[in-house]
Amino acid sequence: MDKSHRESVKSKFYKGLVSDQMQLVPQPPLVKPYDKNGVIVDLPDPKGFAPHLSDFKQIALQRRSVREYAGRPLTLPELSYLLYMTQGVTGYRADKSATLRTVPSGGARHGFETYLAVFNVDGLQQGIWRYLPIEHKLLLEKAAWPGFANDVVASAQNQKFVETAQIYFMWSVDFYRIEWRYAEEAAKLATLDVGHVCQNLYLAAESIGCGACAIDAYNQPKSDELLGLDGDNECVIYCSTCGVKR
Questions:
Q1: Is the pTM of this model over 0.90?
Q2: What does the alpha-carbon distance between residue 183 and residue 164 come to, in Å, rounded to a whole number?
Q3: How far apart are CA 167 and CA 244, in angstroms?
Q4: Which of 15, 65, 198, 214 has the lowest CB atom count within 10 Å?
Q5: Residue 140 near residue 127, CB atoms below 8 Å
Q6: How many C-beta atoms surround the C-beta of residue 125 within 10 A?
């Protein structure tokens, strides 16, 4: 493709779009800021973790949505692996302007935050945790409270199997992280990109004898409230249970 053709394609793609990046507005942070004095747990190195299955064809063919889980806790190395395979940082662009991760994202914007409702993970207290992908750590957002499981289930439109899983993934989207480059195209890109994230969860879970079940029929206000999100600049965009197969 010669230069004139590239410019023509770009002008059509960006026709009518005036993003903050085009106006030289500094880009937003690569990840959501957090209190470094909070309760933070180091995760085991996922690169040394060996999954049970490594044949991609077998993993893809066996993958199913799983709604029944065994009673044993998920281990911290297993959780570390699942988090790394869904949102782990594998590198940076040369100018440090963007992270490179285990999933694709339009313009490497990676507009998501990973929250976990933890029910049964060895070494982690119950509650709401947030994944810190750059440091590969977990931050405790809220310790479990009386009625914790009931509130999580209510946020999932009262789908009772949610509380039988070891963990409940809740991905939020920081729209401005994407809008900064793509303006009003951000909503489309967010819905496409979060699908890559959840598919990686399905495949990674299958490779370690676990299973996942994506949930898009969640209660938006209750889910946002559960995570303390404003529902405007940041809101829940997708959820999934995950746990050890029965």
A1: yes
A2: 40
A3: 10
A4: 15
A5: yes
A6: 12
